[in-house]
Predict the structure.
Amino acid sequence: MAEHLGVFEQAVLLALVHPRTALGRQGYGRAILNEVQQRLDREVAAGAVYATLDRLERKGLVSSHLAAGTSVRGGRPKRHYTVEPKGLRALHASRRATDRLWAGVRLPLKGVS
Amino acid sequence: MNPPRASEWWLRLLLADRDRETVSGDLLEEYREAVLPARGERAARRWYRRQVLGIAWRSARTPLALGALCGAALGAWILVDTVRQPLSDDDALGIVVAFAAMLAVWAAMAAAVAWPTRRLGHGVAAGLLVGAATLLVLHVAAIARVVMFVDTIRARDDWQNLLVRYHRSGFATLRAYAVYEYVRQTPLILAIGAVGGALSGAVGGLVARLRPR
């Protein structure tokens, strides 16, 4: 059975699977933070992204490797993330669950008076 | 242009060995390339401090919650015990045993928090937070006990000194005076919890640090 993903976890995984910006395609912490902010259309705390990446990595949904840093970051290394097959399955399952939830609902919603 | 030095130092202290360089590098890069040019120096420094506070809060949540849980359990126990035996004094041996058990629980909680990072400092910080949170919640329960049972427990031997102080105080009711005394002790209680917790946390952090890889 696929992992159940929260909205924020989905945003982080989608940032890796389908980045919309050149920076996002690099798949390291700062790039993911920016992608997630774009997708959610709000400012996001960096700590929330790192905590989520850490959790996803412990669950085996993403993996990471270190790469050399640049001068703008004081030479500090970057940690690049990649989505694992288990992460892709979890994303598919989340999408199917959302589709099932909204099946037959016509927009815009009308309130019951 | 660099972010606030103290915040950067604190950030590096908070992060696990694995993340120290990468996460601080990410924030430095975002600060220099995006936030500083877009928002100016003051706002950028505020942004950086906010990110560090967010990471600190995430680190502090678990020990604070564990401490509050521990304090709530002890608080419930003293309330139930007061209902059962309202006039029995706290015996010295019982207090020593309970405090020793609490220190051991704090050490275990600190070890659990420091386990993934293996950092002694994380154990100390976690212990400090667990200890302070435990005693704060326990102290609130003790104040609740005073409010609920003051008419009964005023007859206890260990309350007689407080009664003498109350008669000299000018307070209208014993309940109000007792609550005033308890609230006044809060900083001391927090300090005892923090110091005791930090010491226990050092033990827990050491256990986490020395565990086999």
